[in-house]
Each structure stands twice: as structure tokens, then as C-alpha cells.
Amino acid sequence: MPQAYPSTIYGNSLQAWSVYQNIGLLRSQDSIVQEMRELFGHEYSGHIASSIKSSLSRFYEPTYRELIAKLRAGKLLHADETKVSVKGTTAWVWAFTNLDEVAFIYSDTRDACTVESMTNGFGGVLVSDFYAAYDSPKCPQQKCLIHLIRETNDDLFKNPFDKELKVLAAQFTALLTPIIETVDRFGLKRCHLKKYSIEVSRFLKNTADVELVSESARAYQRRFDRDGRKLFTFLEALT
Q1: CB 25 within 8 A of CB 32
Q2: Contact 189, 239 (CB under 8 A)
Q3: CA 22 → CA 28, 86, 111, 118, 160, distances in Å?
Q4: What value does the CA radius of gyration of the chain take, rounded to a whole number of Å?
Q5: What is the spatial distance between Cα 109 and Cα 238, in angstroms, rounded to a whole number?
Q6: pLDDT digit string, tens, across residues 170-205
Q7: Do the beta carbons of residue 22 and residue 53 sit within 8 Å?
Q8: What confidence tens digit (pLDDT) does each residue in 195-204 have?
Q9: What pairs with residue 127 in β-bridges?
Q10: Shortest CA distance to 145 belongs to which of 236, 235, 238, 230?
């Protein structure tokens, strides 16, 4: 990481403070400039906070590119996105991390272009939720079990008398419980987890073959048919 900020009449500490106030504490640039005027008794330009932010953005561009390169070269990549409002216009911020480094990417849209660009050359496992854009990369994928469990619990709460959904959820719980217990005991070790692959295959086949009437249960049946293997990539893709 670079050791000194760009040459300027403003010191490193003031520049870092200004950017931290804006990004870390979510303060407006106008309020930052006003506080600088009050603290130092100097009539700073109204654009000084914006100028400092732009300058440091250019300064840290090589560091940012190094982070992207590290993420692409790794064996694991978690991805998620969130909606933001920029001057009243909807945009998206994507987060990518390997649990050591993290990079955020701004995009005007939520389409798959950002994910495809980020995973270009990535050969590890992509961990994500069930948003369709994450299906576009060709690398191995692990769908987030926490998302699925949360959604299943929400649907069970909304449909307390749906017997087919209850049975399907109970079967999935019976499959997942010993796997979680094994992870708790031994960690994410393939030598201890690969034995569950047969049970996963049996669960997915039985779920696909059963005749269901409930639309909620059928929706999960379709999800298991589409994403079933991606729910259990970790059984085989670990050390």
C-alpha cells in the first residue's frame, strides 16, 4: 500500500480525516467543509472535501486493482449486492470478498455484467444467494444455505397448514442437520463431508419424483431441481 498521499498543501492526516468523515461516518461534504472552517479558522473552498476524495480515489486505484487481482486468483469468492440511491437515482454496490480482502464495485444496474467481469479468470468457488445474475459465471458455485433456510422458515410461517411444505422442509432439515454437526466437529474437511454426497443425491431424486399439489412446496421442488447440487458444492470442493 502507498505510504504517502499525493503532494498537496493539505497534510495526510487532514485528507484521511476528511474522507473518513464522509465515507465512514456518512457526513455530507458540505458539513465537513463547515467543520474545517470552524476548527481552523480558514475559509476553505466549498469543494475541498470533494477534491480530497477524488485525489485519494486516484491515489488508491493501484491498491484497489491489487485487491481485485487477489480476489480473482483465490479459491473462494463471496458475492452480494445492495441497492443505493445516488442523488435520487437508483444504483447498485456489489461486494466481493475472500474473507481476507474485500472489494466494492459500483454499477448503474443489477445485471450480470458486474459479476461476469469480476469472475473473469476466477477458478475457485463462488458463494452467493439465489439472484439469477450469479448463475452466469462458469466457475463452481455454492448457493447460500442460510438464505434458503431463512426463506423456508418465512414460508412455513406464512403457510402453517401446508402439509406438503412441512414435509419437504422436515426432509431437508433431516438431511442438513448431520452435515452441520459434522462441520461443527471437524470443520470444512472433505474427508469428513464427502460421505453425505450419496444422501444428497437421494434427497434430490426423491424430491424431484414426488407429486406435489401445494404451489409453495412445488416452488421449492423446482428450486431443488435447479440449484440442488449448488447447495452442496462444499461437500466436494474443500480440502
Answers
A1: no
A2: yes
A3: 6, 14, 28, 27, 47
A4: 24
A5: 33
A6: 999 999 999 999 999 999 888 899 999 999 999 999
A7: yes
A8: 999 999 999 9
A9: 78, 142
A10: 230
